[in-house]
Write a structure and sequence with these properties.
Helices cover about 70% and strands about 0% of the residues. By secondary structure, it is mostly helical.
């Protein structure tokens, strides 16, 4: 189907979201999420570096400076 389901104010008011009441648990969850964010950023930087290396290698190969046998 191409129609979009409706989600109105009444549906929103029925939503119940639970979260830990204890601050220590909330802090632990926040630290875990923060660590995951840092790891994602490091992986993105590593990917960008690898993409740049690949581009440089392709440029070298396409100009004929290096030949593969």
């Amino acid at each position: 189907q191409t129609s979009q389901a409706n989600f109105g104010k009444q549906d929103f008011e029925k939503l119940r979201i639970s979260f830990p009441i204890e601050k220590e648990i909330q802090v632990n969850i926040a630290q875990i999420i923060g660590n995951m964010d840092k790891e994602i950023e490091l992986l993105k930087e590593k990917l960008d570096k690898q993409v740049q290396i690949k581009k440089g290698m392709m440029r070298t190969l396409l100009t004929g400076k290096i030949r593969l046998i």
